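Lay summary

Proteins are chains of building blocks that fold into shapes. Our project writes down both the chain and a compact code for its shape. Here are two examples, one after the other.
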Amino acid sequence: MADLTMIGAALLPSLFLLVYFIRSDRFPEPWGGILGTFGFGVATVAPVLAIVVPLQNLLEPRVTDPFALAGVQAFILAALPEEALKLAVLLGFSRRLKAFDEPMDGLVYGVVASLGFATFENVLYVAGGGDGWLGIALVRAFSAVPGHAMLGAIMGFYIARAHFEPEAARGMIARALIVPVLLHGIYDFGLLATVNSGEAGWVLIGIAVLIVELVWTVRLHRRLRRAQQRRLVEESAAAMAAPHLGT
């Protein structure tokens, strides 16, 4: 029973965020696309570990300064491989779906792909937390898990722009990687600098990044929802006018 409670606590934040973003889409995505994107997001954990573990063994023993070590861990061992693999899911699978037919789809699929990775990662962290698993679950429920979701939303927004603005595709795909890597890396740096140096003030950097991500994601989400509302109004007006066109 305790194990089920632990797993439930690890899964609940992702489930809540998935339901919120999927239900907020006025033109819902097919479950095949959602489940496929989530599944590929989960699957990215394996190649991330395959990349990170050898690099970790190679780089960490060579870096003695706590802040330099935090930089290596945050950007090279976490942000870059994780965000690159999420981007691969969006480009290689989600963007190719027939249902990817409006800008909101990029945001939704970006969140889903990121939460696929974050869900599996969260289970590993919580299950490995020993007697302190509940504290880990609570902290990550309000930090790492929503952080991954918000990074996915930002990434997905740029992927949608690349998809629907072909003339700007290269620049948008570059932003889809660079922006999440920077935000992710700076967030992790704040936390790891705190752990490595023992100076608690560095954690404020991580909190500040989460606030930036939250504001950014809310603004993008509202912008795309307004676009969907305009589309609904236009479609409704067209449907009302259709009978008159035939007379």
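And here is the second example, written the same way.
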Amino acid sequence: MLVMKVIWSFYLLFLFLMWGGEAFAGELSERLANFPQWEKLTSVQPASGDLVYPEWMAGSWKVTSTLVDLAAPLAPEIVTPGFEGNRRQLNQPVSFVVRFVREEAHTSWLKILPEIDDKSPNLVADRAFNSLNLARAYLGDEAVLSVKVDPDSPNRQITFLRSSRQLVSIVTARATETTPNGKFITTEVFQQLFKGGSRPYLNSVESTTAYHKVSTSNPTIEADQVTAVYLSPQDPDYFKAVSQPVALYRYRLEFFPQELPTTPKE
């Protein structure tokens, strides 16, 4: 069913969006190491501003994303829609293009890589570009019309789908961590609202990603990402789940240098 496929395939969409304060030392690293024994993260800070990435992530990249593991901690009592269907995506790589730009270029929407203004200190993700490419890679070009980021807030994004459907994402909290061995780790929590079906559907999602630069150029960057899905307070099973996620997805991301930026047609 397209509605459920859209809701449960979009958890990667916002890994390129966020910025936040430092987490307690080692907490995010430990969290990834403890998969799938997770509970709701409590040390994140309220969302504000944009995520500033390390310099070694500058440029355009072809990303290959592979679902390598998944878990339903509260099964069989609580299993999210689409969870069993997502087993078919195990070890099936999906590729798309992303890019990271200077903050001034990103906010003006006028300047794209590789023409970078070295005077601008902040490297950020081109959120609309990245999310549109990712959404179309998973759902197809015809299913996804466009992605718009609120010009007044990088924390609100809308994905426009066929048949007047929309996926609204609002970032609520986030944190970052840099490890002694050079890994850059982010975690972000956001609310997702799917509109346009028979009734709106709301859930809470946390995505934690550890990036590291490798010594070769094929790929140049690798990342380990875990996405946790929590029930919203409106769900009748909310109090049964308490602070535990109802679904966990683990991805391996590989970043390959892209010579020229690719702009998707809207």
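What can we say about the second shape? The radius of gyration is 18 Å.
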